């Protein structure tokens, strides 16, 4: 199938926009590659320090003729998705020895859980943790003793931060190895129902706690299709996972076999072999376009609209919101996974999963099939899925027919003809809205504004019974410069209750929602942000706002709006406590949300 003209045109525009930055980037990583394997340039003293604790592997390391893999791990056992990584280094080292190579843990990176910090002060560090992860991974790899890198990370900011680091060390091959989702627990729609009942006082905290514990109950990623699982999809679409590995559960023989296979692949594509595939060559414009197509086809997390531009910039690629919007206009929504449906990622995987979906998109001409991937064979390899047969890991063709059309549909008969993301633009700035779970009759909302400066104030107004009319809730001073751009996921149950009462309700914010944002229209990531003097700082209670996801506009209908003096509230309460004082430089220098809110690159 010929490449869809819109996909071709968007790719060409990105390549033209990025011509100079990409050229400089490729020159940098090719110069590093031309110097040969790094350990050959270290002194004997440098190397002795690096190998002193390596016991059995010392001789092979000192010899230096076979690859040494650097493991960058985001392991901790507070994140269910990362707890399985505890055993991975030993598995990887053993697998490397199978190929005559070696592996070392290069370093660890922090990994915070947004599920723990939702609605809490710690969430104000969450977005910036992406840049910290990139910096920490850079420190880990700076020892320059590694010929390929294996990255262990799953969740929200961790994978984007690791990608930024992998791009920065783009001359080094990179393999990403996931941990997989936890087994299905309490269905996500039932959990959401209990949250709404708690918000209205119908049930107590004991019922809420029981529901949450039944939903999040074991090692592995949360089973809804939020940012963590969207990350895993991206790694497959962009060719940095082995095919079909994203949604294999932890603590299984197949999962261990895939971890070993990932290590074997890292050895094969290291600089010492004929199959050298540097990470920077994988992370090109086509790979990022494929990632955006996957985001639209699956109704993935809005957080990736922030992360993908930051990830791309590290590889010399410049993305813009218009790229997301144009691809969304031609990519069908093929999956219904909570919060866009009732199924979880385990059900999605069983219905055919990424192998089926990638195959459908390739056949429809909506993906570049000639990309560089760690398989060395392009994206066609990702039409396959792994199986463990008589103890041997093999890849077989994935399903060519959906096994459950309530969860996964062909590109020719999708749930929606276009993807789940729209660009919004108007006199309130630029932002995005995810509409894959929003009913069509709610795609246009025009109502008076109620202005708040934090999500707790919205909840207080709800409890006080003052939100009784059609309303557009404006929550401003939530951008990266104001307070680190925390997710406003805590508003979801409250706004859903208002909507279920028959009100027309929407959210407009310079903050962000969780990857689990759902049925309430939400204009998010609005830039310029209020703390930077953006238009949201001039909105007043009662102003009529029109959010039109169909036309892609976000407008305030108020005379004299432009002449108003922006509000300048006291934001000092966001500056101290729980580590916030350490991030003052991040807040001061963060870029706009439309460019990824990045700091490192």
Would you write up a description of this structure?
The protein has two domains: 5-183 and 218-397, no CATH class; 421-595, IlvD/EDD C-terminal domain-like (Glucose Oxidase, domain 1), CATH 3.50.30.80. It is 36% helix and 13% strand. It has helices at 5-17, 19-34, 44-51, 58-63, 88-98, 114-117, 126-141, 158-168, 188-199, 205-215, 227-237, 253-268, 279-282, 285-298, 303-314, 321-328, 345-350, 353-363, 455-463, 480-483, 492-500, 584-589, and strands at residues 68-73, 102-108, 148-152, 174-177, 384-389, 392-397, 421-426, 429-434, 444-452, 471-475, 505-509, 522-527, 544-548, 553-556. It has an eight-stranded mixed sheet. A four-stranded parallel sheet has the order 2-1-3-4, sandwiched between helices. A two-stranded antiparallel sheet has the order 5-6. The radius of gyration is 24 Å and the shape is globular. The two termini are 37 Å apart.
